[in-house]
Amino acid sequence: MSEWFETLPGLHDQVWQQLTHGAARRDVAARQPTLATISPDGWPEARTVVLRRAVADPAMLEVYTDTQSDKIASIAAHPRAALHFWEPALALQVRLQATVEVISGPTVADRWQELPDGALLSYGVTPPPGTTLPHALDYTKTPDQSRFCVLQLALGHIDVMHLGTYHRRASFSATDGWTGKWVSP
Ligand SMILES: Cc1cc2nc3c(=O)[nH]c(=O)nc-3n(C[C@H](O)[C@H](O)[C@H](O)COP(=O)(O)O)c2cc1C
């Protein structure tokens, strides 16, 4: 019986277990991955987000954000993103690449309604995120559904690194049906 990290299907399944847990629970690293985008002028930019939904087939993730945050302009200019997390309990690094679609309005009203009151405050800060303030607390937070949007990430590539006694790295692509291949770590 092989360990999950010794086979390509085992690694691929583990990635989706972590992503599925991340979307549902707070106690895994996949809950708060780093989302990287490319700014309109070509700079890499990375920030922590909460993973809200994970679907293995077709491979898709969802993250929620504010329509007035800078990442929306970045995604409009370059509709591509990378997502990263390191799960120390499994010695597992996961790196994902995706194309991104921004969805707002009635299509995502169900997601807004499911959010707890405290979370709604993240969508509707005045002035908009990134605006210079005279003092640190010179802003107000009022939930505003028109500012709520969903980043839908259609995954194209998954890179996995397991740091066990031996280091193993695998690369999976949508184009090869996620069968994957071993690559040098
Ligand atoms: C633990 C944690 C979770 C966060 N979750 C989200 C999130 O789910 N969505 C989001 O837009 N920003 C989230 N943020 C804030 C972002 O990291 C970032 O500061 C903000 O979105 C502005 O980024 P931008 O200027 O690149 O658009 C979170 C920050 C932390 C520290």
UniProtKB/TrEMBL annotation:
Key words, A-Z: Flavoprotein, FMN, Oxidoreductase
UniProt GO MF annotations: FMN binding; pyridoxamine phosphate oxidase activity
Cofactor: FMN
InterPro entries documented for this protein: Pyridox_Oxase (IPR000659), Pyridox_Oxase_Alr4036_FMN-bd (IPR024624), Split_barrel_FMN-bd (IPR012349)
Protein origin, superkingdom: Bacteria
Keyword Transcription set for record: no
GO biological process, one term: pyridoxine biosynthetic process
Signal sequence annotation: none
Keyword field contains Flavoprotein: yes
Pfam families: Pyridox_oxase_2
Residues of the Pyridoxamine 5'-phosphate oxidase Alr4036 family FMN-binding domain: 15-103
Protein name: Pyridoxamine 5'-phosphate oxidase
Source organism: Loktanella salsilacus
